[in-house]
Amino acid sequence: MKQLILNAVFIFLLFCAFNNVNSQVQIVPAFHNLSFVMPTDIQNAGDGTNRIFVLEQKGVISEFPNDSNTSAKKTFLDIRSKVLSGGEMGLLGLTFHPDYKHNGFFYIDYVADNPRRTVISRFKVSASDPDKADPTSEFILLEVKQPYTNHKGGQIVFGPDGYLYITFGDGGSGGDPQNHAQDRSVFLGKILRIDVNRKQGSLNYDIPPDNPFKGNKSGYREEIYSYGMRNPWRISFDLSTGLLWSADVGQDLYEEIDLITKGGNYGWRCYEGFHPFKMLDCNGTDYIKPIWEYKHDLDGGDCITGGFVYRGHDAPELKGLYIYADYVVGKIWSLKLEETTVTNSLRFQTKYAISTFGIDENNELYFADYPNGQIYKFKDVQANVK
Asked: Please, what CATH class does the domain formed by 31-316 belong to?
């Protein structure tokens, strides 16, 4: 993760961070008095409290009222003693059970050591304090060994179907040397889909009956929902359409956006975006191409950060558009999908290293600046909107 900004350019970017001359929508600080250390995820509990939860890579989850003037945050969970943090490792994902209001269950994705592995686990809120998790309540759903230190994926999210979706990168190094993404006998380079409300045999979860490889005789993992991913950072459901969006970080030349379908093969390492990468043993004809890609040197990007289709009210100009960014150069784009037509527009050129997006209970959209730990949101400052 890198950012080089010359002094003259910095002045321009500083202005553009809060102003888009072609739009009424501006980027504004969401919580003036709060900052975080290396934020990796922004979530809400969906329980009617309208709280915001922010993950810090080292292993801390903070929570606070969704009020721009709030001056205090509370530590919801601290698992720094469990987390292997640094580079692309750490506490990476959080999601709340759809019935969190009643059962108090939430789920996290983090990297642990000895051996290095991804851990997907469930915790429960404290019985006596709704602002604290019970640190002793961890229930591990699954663990996956990680061969290298990068490409962890790390997003976990409940779909409209009530199942838990989990993203895994290809395990790291460069070029997927062990071809994990195309190997359906392993979890790496995949999006998984599991049922956390039931258990199956020795598993701490069940496998949905309509998963694409359920009951296969080829040794494929039945948890797999889609495959051929390099490092999906991040995924999100558009709850208005049910579409699952994924931003997949590229290798040397291209970043891509995919619409995820059940059983889909998204091509890595055979393809990077639309383009052949390493075609050895690539005999398939069913590779699903991105709906959008951008080239590093041409479009001035290097590391995509996936976002959300905007369904809030504060920035009506963005309604129905997929908002995403590039971590390295700070660009924020909107992508409009109309049947088979895709239109991409540069919205902001910022000074931020955007590590993640997130939404609140009102579907307003936020993003985190990784180095300075600030949270920002989108606002139509010229309109009288809530």
From this structure: mainly beta
